[in-house]
Amino acid sequence: MMRINHITAILSKNVKDVIKNIQVLILFVVYPAVGFIMTQSINVEKGFFISVFATMHFVFTPIVVSAHMISEEKEKNTLRVLRMSGITSTEFFLSTAIFIIFLDCISGSTFIFMAGEGGIDPGLYYSGAIMGSAVSIILGMCIGTFSKGSSAANGLAIPLGLFFSFLPMLSYFNKGLESVSKYLYGQQVGNMIYGQGWSAETGIICLGNLVLIMGLYVVLYRRTKTEE
Asked: In the predicted model, what is the mean pLDDT of residues 171-192?
């Protein structure tokens, strides 16, 4: 059974850790900053630039941040301490996910202001943002659990993050590529941010990606517990 005090304790710990880590904090502002510069410099295709950098913000950033956080916990051996303290894997996952999604959505809200009035549907935008962040967090946790240290985790998280977040942009220019990338959650998140509504295909693809990555995380988590 989940305990609120366990979740709030981990949330408090995450806040303190991130405040001390400027590299992680920068990740939450880099794409909104680049998006702002591009939209102010090039007024043409403003919606395109916003959708590109917002997609990267909600797909790339959670992957790298969650991978870094998990791998750092492993390096400091605090994961084992947390488990011995009675904190379950579900409590740890929820607290980490809530923390990253909250920061991601707060910083990502700047894209709505960049688009101007009537430029972005907030409901569609945040539903895509939360979906993208949630799947990316689980993928990042897979990377952090699999990696031996934070350096190895970053080395794997960055290229994977770029793959899932950069591919939607490339698909705008190559329809053949879109026929493949549409099966990845990053493409579906990009479509929603660009203004396409939820559809049966979007739901099935996002759910399928979530189930596959969650299954991978369960396998890696059990392997880590066995090794310990």
From this structure: 85
Judge whether residue 118 has pLDDT over 80. no
pLDDT score at 2: 64
Which tokens sit at 173?
A: 């220019």
Domain count, the chain: 1
User: Residues with Cβ < 8 Å from 15, sequence gap 6 or more?
Assistant: 99
Query: Contact, 168 vs 55, CB < 8 A?
Result: yes
Token couple for 225: 């517990």
End-to-end CA distance of the chain: 24
Q: Name which residue leads in pLDDT, 178 or 125.
A: 125
CB 166 within 8 A of CB 91: no
For 147: left if phi > 0, alpha if psi spans -120 to 50, otherwise beta; the answer is: beta
Alpha-carbon dihedral 206, 2, 103, 121, rounded to 10 degrees = 40
CA proximity to 9, closest of 76, 89, 95:
95
The CA R_g of the chain, rounded to the nearest whole Å, is: 18
Given the structure tokens 């793959």, which residue do they identify?
Answer: 163
Virtual torsion, Cα 132, 135, 137, 143, nearest 10 deg: -130
Q: How far is CA 184 from CA 105, 135, 212, in A?
A: 21, 11, 11
**Full residue range of the structural domain in which residue 119 is found:** 4-225
> pTM of the entire structure?
0.90
Residue carrying the six token digits 């998006």? 35
Q: What is the mean pLDDT of the chain?
A: 85
